[in-house]
Amino acid sequence: MSEPLKQSVFPGLDRPLAIVDLETTGGSVTRDRITEIGIVEVDAQGVREWTTLINPQVPIPRSIQGLTGITDAMVADAPKFEQVAKQIWQRLEGKTFVAHNVRFDYGFIRNAFADLGFPLSLETLCTVKLSRALYPEHKRHSLETIIQRFGIAVDERHRALADARATYQFLCRAASERDSEDFMAAVQIQTRRPSLPPGLDPAVIETLPEGPGVYYFYGDNDSLLYVGKSINIRKRVMSHFSGDRASGKAMAMCQQIRDIKAQATTGELSALLLESAEIKSQQPLYNRRLRRLSTLYTIQLHETDDQLLRPVIIPVSDADRQLKMYGLFPSKKKAQNALVENAQPFGLCDHVIVTNTKISGPCMGHQIKRCKGLCCGEFSRLQHNTSLLDALGKLALKAWPYDGPVALIENQHTKGGDNAYTAFLIDNWCLLGSHKGQGEPDLQVLIDKQDESAMLDRDLYRYLVKAVFESAPKVRIVVTDKLKYL
C-alpha cells in the first residue's frame, strides 16, 4: 500500500477519504466504549495507515475478547480516547468518513467527541450500502462475505486496521470492476450534500440533537414557519433540504428559514404529543394537518321506544361516555356524510340514516332500491339494528380498556445513568396532564397538574391508541388505586 493513489480512482468522491474501523466493548453507542481504532487515509498524496488501542475504562466482555482478541490487559496501558482525540481529528478533518456499516463506526466516534464537548460533522459513506448498490446479485454484504468473495488477504480479522484495510481493498476492487458512472451514482446517492437555506447559519445544524423531539423553523422577525417531530431531529431537519425530495411548496419554505430550534423529548410518544400541541397552539404557517378544532363531533346510537337504533350526531363534549362513539369529525356535515357513506352498502333506511324522521311509508332509498325495506316491513328492526352496527363498525372508537385513569410512562436511559422520563395522565383517551423528571415517576405531581377540562382530541386519540394497544417502544402503563379514584 505504498504506491500513491489519486482520488480519481474513486469516481464521485471529490474529497480525501478516511476509511475507519473500530473495535468496541459492545454494540451500544451510548453505553459501550471504543477499544481500538484503525484509519486508512487516502488522498492525492497517497495512502497512509494509523492505528492505536484505546483504554475504554470499563471491562471488556469475555465474548468481545474472544471475538477481537483484545483483552483488558492489552488496553490497560493504552491511551484514553481524550489523549488521542487530537490525532484522530487531524486524520478525519476534511475527509469523507468511510466504514463498513458506517452508522456504527461514525456513531461511536461522534459520540466520543461529543463527550469531550466537540461536535463532529463529516460526510459519510457506507460500504455495505455501496456493495448492495453495485452488487445487487448478491444477498449478503457483510465484511466477512466481501473478504471471501474478492479473496482479500486479511492477517487479523476483527482488528481495526486489518478491517479498515479490507474495506479499502473492496473500494479499489469495486471501482475497477464497475462502470465509473455506476460507481459514481452509487456514491453520490449516499454523499449528496443538502443545500442549506441561504439565510441560515450552518452552525445552527450542529446544535440540533440527534435524538427524539420537536423542531421549529423560523423565518424573518422570528415568525414560526413550521413545526415537526422526529426520533432523530438533526437527520430529519437535513432531509428538508434535499431538493430532489422536496415539493415546490417545501422548497419555498426552506428558502425562508432563518433559524432552527429544537426541544428534545424522552421518546417518540412525547414528540408526537408535543408536536400536536405546538401546531394547534401556535398555528405555524406551513402546517396544515393538525389544526385545532374548537368542537369535535361523534356519532352515537340511541334505542327508541320501538326498539330501533337511531344514530345521533352530537359534540364529543356532550357524548355519553358509557356508550360507544363512532368517529371523530370536525363538523356535523362531515359526520353525516360518513354516516351515509358507510350505511348505504348495507341497505339501511333513509328515514333513519338521512332524515332521522318517523317511519311513515317508503323512503327515497327504497324507491331507488337502495333501502332493504325497513320502512315497508320488508326488513325487521332487529335486522336493521344489526346492519347499522356492522355499517358503523369501522368508525368505532376503541373502548377505554381501564376502569379509570392510568399513567403512561415513557423512559429514556441517559449516559449519566439517570433514568429520564415523561409521565402522561390519561383517562378515556383524554390527556389530563404530563410531567417530566428523572428517577422513579412522581405520580402525585402528575395528579396535581391534571387538567380536568381536557377534551378528546382526534390526533391524540390516534397516538394514544397506538401507545396502549401496540406497545409503543419504551412506554409502560401504570395502573394504581392512587390514579383510579381521582
Characterize the structure shown:
It catalyses: DNA(n) + a 2'-deoxyribonucleoside 5'-triphosphate = DNA(n+1) + diphosphate. One of its GO terms (biological process) is nucleotide-excision repair. Its EC number is 2.7.7.7. DNA polymerase III is a complex, multichain enzyme responsible for most of the replicative synthesis in bacteria. The epsilon subunit contain the editing function and is a proofreading 3'-5' exonuclease. InterPro entries: DnaQ, GIY-YIG_endonuc, GIY-YIG_endonuc_sf, GIY-YIG_UvrC_Cho, Ribonucl_H, RNaseH-like_sf, RNaseH_sf. It is built from 19 helices and 15 strands. The radius of gyration is 30 Å and the shape is elongated. The strands form four sheets. Strands 3-2-1-4-5 form a five-stranded mixed β-sheet. The chain folds into four domains: 7-191, Ribonuclease H-like superfamily/Ribonuclease H (Nucleotidyltransferase, domain 5), CATH 3.30.420; 203-282, 3-Layer(aba) Sandwich (GIY-YIG endonuclease); 297-395, no CATH class; 406-484. The chain has helices at residues 62-68, 72-75, 81-92, 102-115, 127-134, 143-150, 160-177, 180-191, 203-206, 233-239, 248-256, 268-282, 332-343, 350-353, 364-367, 381-392, 443-448, 458-469, 481-484, and strands spanning 17-24, 34-43, 46-53, 96-99, 124-126, 213-218, 224-230, 259-264, 297-303, 309-315, 326-329, 406-413, 419-427, 430-438, 475-478. Residues 1-8 have low confidence and may be disordered. The protein is 35% helix and 21% strand. By secondary structure, the protein is α+β, with helices and mostly antiparallel strands. Helix 5 crosses helix 8. Helix 4 (102-115) links the parallel strand 4 (96-99) and strand 5.
